[in-house]
Automatic annotation (TrEMBL):
Residues 240-559 form the Peptidase M3A/M3B catalytic domain. This is Mitochondrial intermediate peptidase, mitochondrial isoform X4. Keywords: Hydrolase, Metal-binding, Metalloprotease, Protease, Zinc. The lineage of its organism: Eukaryota, Viridiplantae, Streptophyta, Embryophyta, Tracheophyta. It holds the Pfam family Peptidase_M3.
Length: 561
C-alpha cells in the first residue's frame, strides 16, 4: 500500500477529544467504535470524514499565515492526527468488523481520505511552511527540528517539487497504486483457495475441524473434505498431513490463488516502476529503500548476499539431512525432497530427535494463561500492569473483544489495547497490530495516549483454545508491537510507536519473541490445562533444540519472502 504508507508518514492521525481516557469515561455513556462518537452507525464514517477534512482545512489555513516554526510543526502534526484517526479506524474496521455495512462504509471513508491525503501532500503552502520551519532552525527542540526535516522529505517523496505535469502524473499513479493494493488484499480475502480431498479419511482427525464436509463424487459412497489453503490452514496441512498428494495439492493451490491478482500485480509493478522513474530513481526498490536506515538497494543487497553466503553451507547440510530422512521413511518408493515435503519431514525429524508432540506442548499454553503470562512479563520489565477495563456501549465490534489499559503506579494510564484474538468468518486472516491513535503532546499538562488493537485468529472456541508454540511466539511478537506503541512517548504522533523507519519497526517485536523461549518466563504461566503442572524444563530445552535444528534453512527461506 505504497501511496497510503507514504501519506501516513506525512499525515498520521487522531484528536484528543474523540477518545475516552479512563475506565470511568468508558462507563459514562454510549459511544461509537474505538471510542469515536461518530462511529455509532456505519453512516457515521461519512460524518467522521467530513469533520476531519473540515478541521484539517482550518489548520491548513492557519499554517498559511506562517506562524512560528514550532506552531507550524504542531499544526502539521494535528492535521496528521486528525486525518489518520479516520484512516486507521477505517483500516481496522475493514479487516475485522462482522457487519458488512460498517466494512463498506469504512472502504468508502478510506478512499475519500486517500484523495484528501493527496491534496494535502501536494499543497505548496504547507510545503513552503515546513521548509521555512526547517530552514529557520530556531525550533524548540531536536524532535521538532527532526519532525520538520522528515515532513519536508516526505512531501518531496510525493513529488511536490516536480513540475505541474509530472506532479499530476505522480498523484494519479499514487491513487492507482493505492486502489491496486486495496484490490490485491480484497482478492486474497475473497479467494483464499481450497482443495477438495476424497475420501475424508486422508485428512488426520485432529485437522478435520478446519475443513468442511463435502458430498462424495459420483459413483463413490464416501464423503470428502474441503480444506482452505489460506496461510494459516496451509501451514497445518503441510505439517500434519502424511498424504504427499494432499500436501502437493494444497501447496500448489495455496501458492497460486487468487489468480485475479496476476493482473493486479502486473499493473502494480508497472505503476510503481513509472512512479519511481518520474521521481528520479532507477527502480521502485531504490525509491522505497531511500527513507529507511539501509538507505539504498546496494546496502540491502550487500547485507542479504553476505548473510546468505554465511548461511548457505549450513542450510545445504540441513537439506541433505532432511532428504536422507525422507529416504529412510519412504524406502523403495523414495522420490526427491519436494517443496511440500520440507515442513512435514522437518516436523517429524524434530519430533523424533527431541521426543516432541505438538499436542503435548499445546496443553501447557491455554490462551488465557498466555495473556496472563504477558501481563506478568510486562509488569516485571516495566513496572506497569495491564488492567481489564469495561467497554462502553458501541465501542466494541464483536463480543469477543477485550479492552485493557496499561497502567503505571506513578505515571497513571500509559495507553489502551484492544484484543480481538479469535477467528471468525470474513476477518483478517493472520495476526497483526493495528494503530488507532498515536501518542502526542497536546499541552504542557495533557498528553494524548496511544490506542492500538492486537488482532489474531486463534481457534474460535474461547473455552478450550490452546496454542501451539509457534502461535505463542506470534502472540509475543504482536505484543512487542503493541508495547512499542503503548510505551512510546513522543512530542508528535508522527514518531509515535511503530511509526518509524520500516527496517526498524520489527526490531522490538522480534526481540520480544525471545521471551517465548525463555524458561524463566515460561514457568510463570505455562501450566497444564488439566493438572496445573508447570511446563517441564526438559520439554522447553527440547523445544529450543528443535528450533535450532533447521535454523539455517529458516533464515535462508526468509531471504526469499
Amino acid at each position: 500500500m505504497a501511496a497510503i504508507s507514504h501519506c501516513r508518514k506525512i499525515f498520521r492521525f487522531n484528536r484528543i477529544h474523540f477518545f475516552q481516557t479512563s475506565a470511568a469515561a468508558a462507563d459514562a455513556k454510549e459511544t461509537g467504535l474505538y471510542g469515536f462518537p461518530h462511529l455509532k452507525t456505519p453512516n457515521g464514517f461519512q460524518r467522521f470524514v467530513d469533520d476531519a477534512i473540515e478541521r484539517a482545512g482550518e489548520l491548513v489555513n492557519h499554517i498559511s499565515t506562517m506562524p512560528s516554526s514550532a506552531e507550524i510543526i504542531r499544526a502539521m502534526d494535528e492535521i496528521s492526527d486528525t486525518v489518520c484517526s479516520v484512516v486507521d479506524s477505517a483500516e481496522l474496521c475493514r479487516h475485522t468488523h462482522p457487519n458488512r455495512e460498517f466494512v463498506e462504509q469504512a472502504n468508502v471513508a478510506s478512499m475519500r481520505m486517500d484523495e484528501y491525503l493527496h491534496f494535502l501532500n501536494t499543497n505548496h503552502n504547507l510545503y513552503n511552511a515546513v521548509m521555512k520551519a526547517e530552514l529557520e532552525g530556531n525550533v524548540v527542540n531536536k524532535e521538532t527540528q527532526r519532525a520538520a526535516h522528515y515532513l519536508r522529505v516526505d512531501f518531496e517523496k510525493g513529488g511536490i517539487h516536480l513540475c505541474d505535469d509530472k506532479l499530476e502524473r505522480v498523484n494519479q499513479l499514487n491513487m492507482d497504486i493505492a486502489q491496486l493494493c486495496r484490490k490485491f488484499n480484497a482478492n486474497i480475502a475473497d479467494d483464499p483457495g481450497y482443495v477438495d480431498i476424497h475420501p475424508a479419511i486422508r485428512i488426520p482427525k485432529r485437522m478435520r475441524h478446519i475443513g468442511m464436509p463435502i458430498c462424495c463424487p459420483a459413483g463413490s459412497s464416501t464423503k470428502g473434505c474441503r480444506l482452505a489453503t489460506d496461510p494459516v490452514s496451509l501451514i497445518s496441512i503441510l505439517q500434519l498431513v502424511s498424504d504427499a498428494e494432499v500436501r502437493k495439492l494444497a501447496y500448489i493451490q495455496g501458492n497460486s490463488v487468487p489468480h485475479a491478482n496476476l493482473d493486479v500485480l502486473d499493473k502494480l509493478i508497472a505503476a510503481r516502476h513509472e512512479l519511481a522513474q518520474i521521481m528520479g530513481y532507477k527502480s521502485y526498490a531504490e525509491f522505497s529503500a531511500s527513507p529507511n536506515m539501509a538507505s539504498s538497494v546496494d546496502v540491502v543487497m550487500s547485507f542479504l548476499h553476505e548473510l546468505s553466503s554465511m548461511v548457505k553451507p549450513k542450510a545445504d547440510e540441513e537439506f541433505v539431512k532432511l532428504r536422507d530422512y525422507k529416504r529412510r521413511q519412504m524406502g523403495q518408493i523414495f522420490t526427491d525432497l519436494e517443496p511440500w515435503d520440507e515442513t512435514y519431514y522437518s516436523a517429524m525429524l524434530k519430533g523424533s530427535n527431541f521426543d516432541l508432540d505438538s499436542s503435548v506442548i499445546a496443553s501447557y499454553f491455554p490462551l488465557p494463561q498466555c495473556i496472563e503470562g504477558l501481563k506478568l512479563l510486562v509488569e516485571s520489565l516495566f513496572g506497569a500492569t495491564f488492567r481489564n477495563i469495561p467497554l462502553a456501549p458501541g465501542e466494541s465490534w464483536h463480543p469477543d473483544v477485550l479492552k485493557m489499559s496499561l497502567h503505571h503506579p506513578e505515571e497513571g494510564d500509559l495507553g489502551y489495547l484492544y484484543l480481538d484474538l479469535y477467528s471468525r468468518k470474513d476477518k483478517y486472516p493472520g495476526c497483526a497490530h493495528f494503530a488507532i491513535k498515536g501518542g502526542r503532546r497536546i499541552s504542557e499538562a495533557e498528553y494524548q495516549l496511544p490506542v492500538v488493537a492486537l488482532v489474531c485468529n486463534f481457534s474460535n472456541n474461547p473455552s478450550t483454545v490452546r496454542l501451539n508454540h509457534g502461535e505463542v511466539e506470534t502472540l509475543f511478537h504482536e505484543f512487542g508491537h503493541a508495547l512499542h506503541s503503548l510505551l512510546s512517548r513522543t512530542e508528535y504522533q508522527h514518531f509515535s510507536g511503530t511509526r518509524v523507519a520500516l527496517d526498524l519497526a520489527e526490531t522490538p517485536s522480534n526481540l520480544f519473541e525471545y521471551y517465548a523461549w525463555d524458561y524463566r518466563v515460561l514457568k510463570t504461566f505455562a501450566k497444564h490445562y488439566l493438572t496445573g503442572e508447570t511446563i517441564p524444563k526438559k520439554l522447553v530445552d527440547s523445544m529450543r533444540g528443535a528450533k535450532k535444528m533447521f535454523a539455517a534453512t529458516e533464515l535462508q527461506r526468509s531471504f526469499m519472502r
